[in-house]
Amino acid sequence: MSERSARVELVVASFDDPIVTGLLAEARPRADASVIGQAIGPAVVPRPRSGAAPYGGHVPDAGVVFVVARRADVPDGPVGCAGLRRIADDTAEVERLYVRPPYRGQGLSRLLLAGVEDLARRRGFAVVRLAAADLRVAGLYVSRGYVRIAPFGRRPSPSVCFEKALPAIGRPSR
User: Fold this and answer.
1) Which of 24, 67, 97, 138 has a CA-to-CA distance to 15 between 20 and 30 Å?
2) 128, 120 contact by CB (below 8 A)
3) Residue 110: how many other CB atoms lie within 10 Å
4) Closest by CA position to 35, among listed 53, 18, 17, 62
5) CB 96 within 8 A of CB 81
């Protein structure tokens, strides 16, 4: 089986699932010095000291849910994730889109983005927003139908943000 044809499974996980915390720790190797780790395979699951905030000072929000990508041919864990956070009644934010370095360039970011958009739609959101941490990925967002918007929330004015209207799914009749 070639790397490109490996079957990818998307699963939903909570913000505190060890699979998610391991990916987030790997994505932020220079996390706050207050974080100590517990090794599990190639990833590190952060475990804050009492009163310390993991993820470089950011306390994970219990309202964030993640879509995690797993491949059957990767025995050492997940290959990427993307988070979804509610920011208004009909609007959600896509955050922490991450693919482990050995698996980049295989379309997993696009797959994760589609998966988290589908999750948002199934949860009743009409719009998803995101902030591009790296402008090299802006092309991915535009190719998925995102349009550039002014910074939202507490983002500083130089932030590059995007938004996408989600097509409605069939609603059950009452």
Assistant:
1) 138
2) yes
3) 13
4) 53
5) yes
> Which among 62, 70, 63 has a CA at the least distance from the CA of 8?
70
Q: Are 61 and 53 in contact (CB under 8 A)?
A: no
Q: Work out the end-to-end distance of the chain between its first and last CA atoms, rounded to an integer number of angstroms.
A: 47
Cα distance between residue 65 and residue 142, in whole Å: 23
- Domains in the chain, ordered, with CATH? 8-165 (3.40.630.30)
pLDDT for 99 equals 95
Please tell me the pTM assigned to this model.
0.76
The count of other CB atoms within 10 Å of the CB of residue 32 is 15
Q: What angle do CA 119, 124, 130 make, to 5 degrees?
A: 60
Question: What does the pLDDT read at residue 72?
Answer: 87
**Do strands 80-88 and 91-99 pair parallel, antiparallel, or not at all (unpaired)?**
antiparallel
Quote the Cα angle for 19-95-166, to 5°: 115
CA 60 vs. chain centroid, Å, equals: 13
Neighbours of 39 (CB within 10 A): 9
- Residues of the chain predicted below pLDDT 50: 1-3, 30-59, 171-174
CB atoms within 10 A of CB 145: 14
